[in-house]
Amino acid sequence: MADQTKTGESATNDERAQRRARRQALIDAGVNPYPITSEVTAHAAQLERDYASLPEGEDTQDVVSVAGRIRALRRQGKAAFIVLEDVTGQIQLFCRVNDLGEEGWGLLRQLDLGDIIDATGRVLRTRRGQLSVAPTKLVLLSKSLRPLPEKFHGLTDREMRYRQRYVDLIMNPEVRDVFRRRSQIVSLIRRHMEADGYMEVETPMMHAIMGGANAKPFVTHFNALDRNFYLRIATELPLKRLLVGGMERVFEIGRQFRNEGMDLTHNPEFTTMEAYCAYSDLDGMKRLSEGLFKAIAREVCGCEEGHEAIVYQGQRVDMSGTWHSVPLSEVASQAVGEHVGMDTPIEHLRELCRVNGIEAEDGWGAGKLLFELYDELGESTLVNPTFVCDYPEEVSPLAKRKADDPRLTDRFELVICGHEYANAFTELNDPVDQAGRFAEQVAAKGMGDDEAMGYDYDYVRALEYGMPPAGGIGYGIDRMIMLFCDQPAIRDVLLFPQMKPEAVTRADIASQLPEKTDNTAASADAIADDAESGAAQEAASRPAAPPLSAGLTREQALELLRRHNKDPFHIQHAETLEGLMRHYAEKYDPANVEFWGQVGLLHDLDWEESQDPAQHTVRAGELIEAEGGTPELVRAIQTHNSDNNPELPKPETKMERVLYAADELSGLIQAAAKMRPSGSVADMPAKSLKKKFKDKRFAAGCDRDVIRHGAELNDMELDDLLAEVLDAMKAIAPIGDIYAKGEAAE
């Protein structure tokens, strides 16, 4: 596999060299491969419409200029056929030497797939029925130096598609369609809001005080003021200040920034639309939501009025009629199989959480416990649009309390297909109550909640002047795009989703640089150093290592493990790590699956007998070498304990970094699985694992700092690591489940 990859890269580099040579030849011949101007008088789709009735084999005298990228090129004697693609579609160029002349035909011989050209000529339809332009003039507009990939589609290329979105857009017309529809949806939202009397406004991106939502912010330093500011996590508080100022209906579409994980429905940088309407309430926000979503279904998805139904990821979603409203407690009750509510004894709510694998903190009240039951168990059961109402005040610091039960708030979340699409309040406008809620948030921050809000003195002061009763709502625009474009992941609807940094080698940089420039220019080495690439780049450019030898068979390794470990739990843990390492070896190093497996199997060989963190793996190394194991096997195992013994080697190779991350995290996953009714990882959602990770009191023996460092070692976001190892645990089941039951028995 490695040889095939190298061969493919070598062929690509050879092709790039040939294209650079053709570029230089054009320049030497006086042809500018990147001219300043071009002329376009027609597009492919327009020509197809205008000449739909043109008979086969008939020419016209109509001269047009088209421009686009060459997607196919076939030379046939004194004729050539080019498929030209523009923003609207494809059109054929029927090139003939007599039409183009010597200069144009010479240029045609220098063209490559991917080049962008301008063609001017008459419109005709060939005898085979293909609408074409017969050019009398060709102009090269942009020489493509990098060949287009033969295949650039599907899950296997997903990360490359996100990172090189420009290639994704070239190769996959359906991707371009998604982003056309995104633009159409955002435009429709603006028109819908303006037609309803709302005014679009803009509020600051940087806030001195974190507020408007519970989330972890990005922090930046404002040099002029010499203090830290937060990139906004919500637009709520500035927009409600405008209601105080007399603007009755306002909305803002803009980016929010939350320094949290990335998964199928979350990106640290995302788009929302928040709207606030004076003299309205929660019912007003429900009607706004129904009207907006139905309008998108009709205009973008082609639904008929009164029959607004779409399909999302195989599920039929019926948006017609009046949407169902249901109290949060009712959804939680259906999920647990009995009636629960704010009057349910707290200890019983805690027991329901425990039975359902939800770890409850000591300080949680009935509202928070009830919310967790809904959030973990009930939300995912809702498919058709549902307004989940009556949220506990404990989890709604900015919403107005309900008049008939102050323990609840006048709030709803719009849930479709198990995901939240909007969050709405009857807005809190009592300044004294708001000040008290802010004070509670500050207290939570003091107890370690880094997502709690700060105390916003100015906002309370604004409320003291009087804010009219109002309804407010926030929509996740990216999730709306996912829904109406039937896309499974948020990255599929973001042109440039956040990605981990790419390792670029010095050779990669050198391949792009000209031989000389007009002014002083940095070398490839200087550029690489400036980018602080260093060791990661060098590692990426190293040749593949030869296959590794453990020196032991799997049977010998297992017998050695059992000789020094009598506790079934330790053996089960070793077999789980073996399964995980084999799983990852298939992905990263298929030539060394057996070696990776033995590293996992023997990584804790000496723990049961020594129980000494500082000397852990030292004795294991001696035992393995005495049995005939190789130094490479010993080294790989010892790296995972280098935090406790600085004399041991640190994890450097991919295998060693995977072992470091998977060992500690697998323990947390199994502890979480033990809490579930099934006792299995198979039905554990990633969201549940993330909550367990954040709760420092859960499985306190699992070192969160080690897991975080494991994510860093593997160049991964923490949430990505949690989700990936959880998926790996599911993939190797039932080994992991046996381990969970063994831990439970202990």
Provide an overview of this structure.
- A hairpin with a 2-residue loop joins strand 17 and strand 18.
- This protein is an alpha+beta fold.
- It is built from 28 helices and 19 strands.
Give me some keywords for this one:
746 residues; single chain; disordered N terminus; nine-stranded mixed β-sheet; globular; alpha+beta; 19 strands; disordered C terminus; five-stranded mixed barrel; 43% helix; 28 helices
- Content of β-strand: 15-25%
- Quaternary organisation of the protein chains: single chain
Strand-pairing-aware structural class: alpha+beta
Query: Describe the biggest sheet?
Result: 9 strands, mixed
> Count the strands?
19
Could you say which overall geometry the principal axes of the C-alpha atoms support? globular
Rg, Å, rounded: 31 Å
Average pLDDT rating:
88
The helical percent reads 40-55%
N→C terminal distance: 44 Å
Short structural summary:
It contains 28 helices and 19 strands.
Show the helix and strand layout:
Layout: H1 2-28, H2 44-50, E1 59-76, E2 79-85, E3 90-96, H3 97-108, E4 116-125, E5 131-142, H4 158-163, H5 165-171, H6 173-195, E6 199-200, E7 206-207, E8 219-222, E9 227-231, H7 236-244, E10 249-257, E11 269-278, H8 282-299, E12 309-312, E13 315-318, E14 324-327, H9 328-336, H10 346-355, H11 366-378, E15 386-392, E16 401-402, E17 405-416, E18 419-426, H12 431-446, H13 457-464, E19 470-476, H14 477-485, H15 506-510, H16 524-530, H17 534-541, H18 554-564, H19 568-588, H20 593-602, H21 607-610, H22 618-627, H23 631-638, H24 654-675, H25 686-694, H26 704-713, H27 718-731, H28 735-745
Parallel strand pairs: 3-5, 6-10, 14-15
Antiparallel strand pairs: 1-2, 1-4, 2-3, 4-5, 7-9, 8-9, 10-11, 11-19, 12-13, 15-17, 16-17, 17-18, 18-19
